[in-house]
Amino acid sequence: MDLEFLPENRTLIVRINCEMDHHTSEAIRRRVDGEIQRLRPQKLVFDFSGVSFMDSSGIGVIMGRYKNIQRTNGTAVMVNVKPEVRKVFEISGVTKLIPQYDNIKQALQNM
Length: 111
Fold this sequence. Notes:
Layout: E1 3-8, E2 11-16, H1 25-39, E3 43-47, H2 56-71, E4 75-79, H3 83-92, E5 100-101, H4 104-110
Parallel strand pairs: 2-3, 3-4, 4-5
Antiparallel strand pairs: 1-2
């Protein structure tokens, strides 16, 4: 599992560079939660440029972090979502809740 955390002001960019499935989701959740707790960001950007596969456990990770950041009046977005992952988000209804942008620059301009 490969994650990168890029804090910038009150924004935390989480670059995910692995599949998000039942094998990796729990570890991803723990690491992201740890960084959120440590940095207390107001904005959370999930960068999916390195994600080629995701199942329902990955959706659970994203939705849980989305709900957590909302409780503190923060916002979360997704960027660089590949078509095969976007389809999973669309089918599950995640795209109705969490905005998607083509890249980090666009997301930061709209948050």
